[in-house]
Design goal:
The complex is a heterodimer of chains A (544) and B (488). Chain A is of the alpha/beta class and 544 residues long. Chain A has five domains: 33 residues; 38 residues, no CATH class; 206 residues, no CATH class; 55 residues, no CATH class; 59 residues, no CATH class. Helix content of chain A is 49%, strand content 8%. In chain A, the strands form four sheets. A six-stranded mixed sheet of chain A has the order 4-3-12-9-10-11, with helices on both faces. Chain A has a two-stranded antiparallel sheet with strand order 1-2. A two-stranded antiparallel ribbon of chain A has the order 5-8. The radius of gyration of chain A is 30 Å and the shape is globular. Chain B is built from 20 helices and no strands. Chain B folds into two domains: 176 residues, no CATH class; 210 residues, no CATH class. In chain B, helix 3 runs antiparallel to helix 4 and helix 11 crosses helix 17. Chain B is mainly α. The relative contact order of chain B is 0.10. Classes of the chains: A alpha/beta (544), B mainly alpha (488). Chains A and B meet through helix 1, helix 3, helix 4 and helix 11 of A and helix 1, helix 9, helix 18 and helix 20 of B.
Chain lengths: 544, 488
């Protein structure tokens, strides 16, 4: 009996030694197939040994970090522990900045939740008044940029991308600490909608559209365990986007054709928040609709060039529609930093911003509601600077200025009996107090003056002193665009190109160059900083 | 290197045991010595030379001490042999503390403070300096003969399982085992099970609870924080309701026990795999019915060291009651200081010293009279409150936390969001008081001190292997928090 026991001991001890070596064996051989971890993280490079790094313990620390990322079966054991945390405590080690666990297995980004409770502004501003001022300034900058770009034939617009929290608030968690009790609050999504409408900033509010169709749509607008809109909803949004662009640019683009719906398990990125949890088994298995996005192939349709500046919601559209068919080029400036879909650049810092903007047909700011506090990542300010337009909005407080103007107009109205008579009638008609009606009227006048460019903002001049090279280059680009739009001009240029053995592009540029030189010689091209503006559209818009 | 690290668990330990058991029995001590040097050199590269040099010097001093017939020289050599490790301990552990206090005094006189380069504390110095002292004194007293081989002595001092956090092993307890020991298969398996029990205590209980304690009280050492961060901690504590304040203090009470006891279990387990029988360091201290009993069950090897090498040399109870109380108090004051070079540790030790004296005077009798359950609860709560001074370096903050505990503005905290902490604390409490019942004592005896049958071995092996994997998982999962996309 004893002998039998000893044998068992030996076997168990031998097994123990093998067991302890399993991670090393796996690391060296990869003998067991293991699914990689999902999500992105910065891997620790293998540290180089040196006596100095060893002496300061830096080498040991790095080795510990490196081994913790590379030991055999790491993926499996981490998933095992994550599953335990999820099953027993409904949590994982994924940073709270990445995921919030909602009801019934719904997952959200914390940014979305704090935005729903209108407290996200606290990460960007000291209080709601400061946030309002910042958003207002940005809206004014957008209007200014929109008008300047308009003069180059480039349409700027903002796409207000929906966030999951507003579309599906019923699954948000009940934790009291997620609800902001303090007052006053501000939400960029509502503020921007109101401000853009008031100022006349081009915008497409997809969030409101989503809210309208939520109850009738027979597909999920947002997936249960994903961060972005569902792939099918994104296809629908893309179709709406194209229609909006057609209206804005008065052009005919290729129509998107959404193929037949197919019900399937979640495909990436419809479960991207769940995949971040790195669990052994899925939380649930909801099915979503998927379809293929194609175009009608209309050969007469325009293929505009569009620059997209925004967050990751664009990926979902970009992955599903044939971008190359719809657009001639559609570079994507991710958070106004990294450049995608444009082989020439990796970063926006590398490109000539002015040239890129004026050579485009559309520029869209494509940020989700939760990201609208980011002030477009500084794009508008950079663009105004690149286009040599003085960003006078930056040096003034629009809220104070507008309020001052409203008060001035209230004074004027009160001092005019005929106006007061009119307002009393309006107040009675609309069931308002006279004070409220006076203020509303004063506000309406100020808004009108802003939109019409009658109201001059407290700034001195519209343009910074521009170096001549930049100015001429911009004019050349503007002329190229103008010539390209004229078929007869292009016909002539093609002939010249053939005659002088040039490419059409070179001939077009040469012609544009000639036109600009001619204007300079004739004195018809007005330089910035002089009494006349470089274009008629910007000289009266008032908001500089 | 610490036991609860990937480098140790996944690389060092398997590689060491493979080489150790493949090596002929006679050469195993050399393998262990080499591994111990690597283990220590990994964590304290700048101190390894001094550690080895002082150990070698001590070895020859003690050899000389034993050979000489001259009593005066014997005493002198004994003194030098004690001064070397204690001097290193004083310099490295209390150098900064001394300078800070000296500068505080100088500051009061209006003079410019002295400048000095801060000294880094080498890991394990508190333990190996005490072990060195036990060797010298035990040999001087004739309890044991000196080691014949230098390598055996160096091994005794820096043997990696107990080098970092004990148990403090008296030379007389381990000398024979270093020379010759038997490691049965049962020892190896039971040693592994014990190691895993310790690892679970550390990673699955102490670390989980500790993270929540840190979230409120900040890190243990405030010297690395700036004024803003310290101010945040103060305002956090000032705004605690009594429920949270008690949870924080109780959480730390469990954290320190499971952390320290876990490490001791791992050390004892690793030793047992190699055939060593290290002394137990904890015996369910929170089941104590008095502070005196608590100290018989908490960090038992330190208690034994203080008793044998401080309390008794100070006169113990042989010089009258007043002197006994003074001796006891001095012992605990120094014990507090040994735990850390900061006044809060001194206060912690002094409070325990006072309560031990009170026990001897009257409290012990009161505790016996009130029955087991009330006395255990009272002792536990007292220990819990005193732990606040151990955890919180700043007196103002410690006092603030205690005031919040007794502000009696209790609130009902939500379970969701804190479920893991509460469940872990319940598990910690269960295992802390488990042995109050006879059933618990039986289970403990069976798990720790009885040989297993084949069936039991198989079952426990599977559980231990799973627990080991789970601990590695917990250790690594907490560090992995990926992003969906990189942002800017």
């Amino acid at each position: 009996m004893r002998k039998f026991k000893i044998k068992y001991d030996w076997i168990l001890f031998a097994l123990l030694m093998v067991f302890l070596f399993v991670p090393i064996i796996q690391e060296w051989t990869g003998i067991f197939p293991v699914k990689p971890m999902k999500g992105v993280f910065v891997p620790t490079p293998k540290p180089e040994f040196s006596f100095e790094t060893y002496k300061t313990n830096a080498y040991q620390t790095q080795i510990d970090k490196y081994t913790s990322e590379n030991f055999g079966l790491r993926e499996t054991v981490i998933k095992l522990y994550n599953q335990y945390l999820w099953d027993f405590f409904h949590k994982t080690h994924v940073s709270k900045e990445q995921i919030v666990y909602g009801k019934d297995g719904w997952l959200y980004q914390p940014g979305a939740i704090s935005d729903y409770y209108q407290k996200q502004f606290r990460y960007y501003a000291a209080d709601s008044a400061q946030m309002a001022s910042m958003l207002s300034k940005e809206a004014h900058r957008l209007l200014l940029l929109q008008q300047v770009l308009e003069s180059y034939g480039t349409h700027l617009f903002v796409c207000l991308v929906p966030a999951k929290d507003l579309i599906y608030p019923e699954f948000l968690p009940d934790d009291k600490d997620t609800i902001y009790e303090g007052e006053p609050k501000i939400s960029a999504r509502f503020f921007n909608e109101e401000e853009f409408t008031r100022l006349g900033v081009n915008h497409l509010n997809l969030e409101q559209w989503f809210l309208r169709i939520k109850d009738t749509a027979n597909f999920a607008l947002f997936p249960k365990t994903g961060m972005h809109w569902s792939r099918y909803a994104a296809l629908q949004a893309a179709d709406t986007l194209v229609r909006y662009m057609e209206n804005l640019g008065d052009i005919n683009m290729k129509n998107l054709v959404i193929g037949p719906k197919e019900l399937d398990n979640a495909r990436n990125p419809d479960d991207n928040l769940e995949s971040l949890l790195n669990l052994l088994r899925p939380i649930s298995k909801p099915k979503y609709y998927y379809a293929e996005g194609t175009t009608d192939g209309d050969p007469t349709a325009s293929q505009p060039k569009m620059i997209v500046i925004g967050d990751s919601f664009w990926w979902v559209i970009a992955a599903q529609i044939p971008l190359k068919e719809v657009f001639s080029r559609v570079p994507y400036w991710y958070y106004n930093s990294t450049v995608y879909y444009d082989n020439r650049y990796h970063s926006v810092d590398e490109l000539n911003l002015a040239e890129e903007l004026v050579s485009s047909d559309f520029v869209v700011l494509f940020y989700c509601a939760t990201q609208q506090y980011r002030m477009n990542d500084g794009f508008t300010q950079k663009a105004l600077k690149a286009l040599c337009v003085k960003d006078s909005v930056a040096v003034m407080d629009s809220t104070d200025f507008v309020e001052r103007e409203i008060q001035r107009n209230i004074g004027k109205i009160l001092a005019t009996p005929s106006s007061m008579e009119n307002i009393r009638e309006k107040a009675a008609l609309n069931h308002k107090t006279v004070e409220k009606a006076v203020r509303d009227d004063a506000k309406w006048i100020v808004n009108y003056q802003i939109q019409e460019g009658i109201l001059k903002w407290p700034s001195e001049d519209n343009h910074t002193s521009m170096d001549s090279t930049t100015f001429i280059e911009l004019e050349i680009q503007r002329t190229i665009k103008a010539l390209s739009a004229k078929p007869e001009a292009m016909e002539s240029i093609r002939e010249k190109a053939a005659k002088y053995s040039k490419t059409v592009e070179k001939a077009l540029r040469d012609d544009a160059h000639w036109v600009v030189n001619y204007k300079i010689q004739q004195g018809t091209l007005i330089w910035p900083g002089t009494t006349k503006d470089i274009n008629t559209k910007t000289e009266n818009h008032g908001i500089q | 290197m610490v036991f609860s690290s990937n480098v140790f668990l996944l690389y060092f330990m398997p590689a060491f045991f493979l080489v150790y058991f493949l090596t002929p029995r006679k050469a195993r001590n050399y393998v262990l010595l080499l591994a111990s040097l690597v283990f220590y050199a990994w964590g304290a590269p700048e101190f390894i030379i001094q550690l080895v040099a002082s150990t070698v010097a001590n070895f020859y001093l003690v050899q000389w001490m034993c050979k000489t017939e001259k009593k005066g020289l014997k005493k002198l050599l004994c003194g030098i042999s004690i001064i070397i490790p204690i001097g290193l301990l004083l310099f490295y552990k209390y150098g900064n503390f001394t300078m800070e206090n000296l500068n505080a005094i100088i500051g009061l006189t209006g003079h410019a403070p002295l400048t000095w380069k801060r000294i880094m504390l080498p890991i394990g110095i508190s333990f190996f300096s005490f072990q060195s002292v036990t060797y010298t004194l035990d040999t001087y007293r004739g309890v044991n003969k000196p080691m014949e081989k230098l390598t055996d002595f160096v091994l005794y001092i820096i043997m990696f399982p107990q080098l970092i956090a004990g148990p403090i092993i008296r030379y007389c307890d381990v000398a024979d085992q270093i020379r010759s020991r038997e490691s049965t298969m049962d020892d190896r398996l039971q040693g592994f099970y014990r190691f895993v029990i310790g690892l679970c205590k550390k990673i699955l209980i102490a670390d989980v609870i500790g993270a929540q304690v840190d979230a409120i009280l900040g890190p243990a050492n405030y010297s690395l924080l700036d004024a803003g961060q310290i101010s945040d901690i103060f305002s956090r504590v000032a705004n605690l309701d009594s429920t949270t304040a008690w949870i924080v203090s109780l959480a730390y009470t469990f954290q320190i026990y499971f952390d320290f006891a876990g490490y001791s279990d791992m050390a004892i387990g690793l030793g047992r795999i190699m055939g060593f029988r290290f002394p137990e360091n904890f015996d369910n201290p929170y089941t104590s019915r008095s502070i005196t009993e608590f100290w018989r069950r908490w960090h038992m090897t330190l208690g034994a060291f203080i008793m044998n090498y401080l309390y008794i040399p100070l006169g113990g109870n042989r010089k009258g009651k007043a002197r006994m109380y003074l001796n006891l108090w001095i012992c605990f004051l120094l014990s507090g200081l040994w735990h850390g070079a900061s006044w809060n540790f001194v206060v912690w030790g002094a409070l325990h010293g006072l309560l031990i004296c009170a026990d001897k005077l009257f409290l012990g009798k009161v505790m016996k009279k009130i029955g087991m359950v009330p006395s255990v609860i009272l002792t536990f709560l007292t220990v819990n409150i005193i732990w606040v001074f151990f955890r919180v370096e700043d007196f103002g903050l410690a006092w603030m936390l205690i005031k919040r505990m007794f502000a009696f503005d209790f609130t009902l905290l939500p379970f969701s969001g804190n479920a893991q902490l509460y469940v872990t604390m319940i598990i910690a409490a269960f295992f802390s008081f488990f042995t109050l019942s006879k059933f618990g004592q039986k289970v403990q005896k069976k798990v720790f001190f009885t040989d297993f049958t084949n069936g039991q071995h198989i079952a426990v092996w599977i559980i231990a292997a799973f627990a080991f994997v789970f601990c590695v998982a917990a250790l690594n999962a907490s560090n992995f928090s990926p992003f969906i996309y990189f942002r800017f």
